[in-house]
Amino acid sequence: QVQLVESGGGLVQPGGSLRLSCAAIGSIASINAMGWYRQAPGKQRELVAVITSAGSTNYADSVKGRFTISRDNAKNTVILQMNSLKPEDTAVYYCNADGVRTRGALGRNDYWGQGTQVTVSS
Q1: 24-74: per-residue pLDDT in tens?
Q2: From CA 2, how far away is CA 19, in angstroms rounded?
């Protein structure tokens, strides 16, 4: 019913920037929050940043001051602007949509994107 389409991953040098985009596609009535998670090799999946439909945000301590999350509610899209990238930011980044209500359906569901690779290396 709902798909999360991610784009913007790639290879960048330390200190560089990337912009990740995620669009939720479907017959969507509302989304409680959208965010980005990441998982590096040998590591647990961790929250990077999240934003609610009202605009409140939360960031992992490791990315504060470097990453900025924003959204366009009308387009059901979330953006993660990543600046001053470090090798430790290398991971697969997953988009998440929480508390999604679809038209004609009961209740709410959560959805995940396929993941996009971000590699920070010289």
Answers
A1: 999 999 999 999 999 999 999 999 999 999 999 999 999 999 999 999 878
A2: 23
Q: How many residues does the structure list for the chain?
A: 122
63-90 burial, b for 16+ CB within 10 Å, e for fewer? beeebbbebeeeebbbbbbbeebeeebb
Which structure tokens are listed for 55?
């605009």
| CB neighbour list of residue 42: distance below 8 Å, 6 or more residues apart | none
SS3 114: coil
| DSSP H helices in the chain | none
Tell me, rounded to whole angstroms, the distance of Cα 102 from its chain centroid: 20
Token pair for 103: 């038209």
Taking alpha carbons only, the member of 38, 47, 19 closest to residue 92 is 38
Cα–Cα distance, 35 to 16 (Å, whole number): 22
What would you report as the CA-atom Rg of the chain, rounded to the nearest whole angstrom? Answer: 14
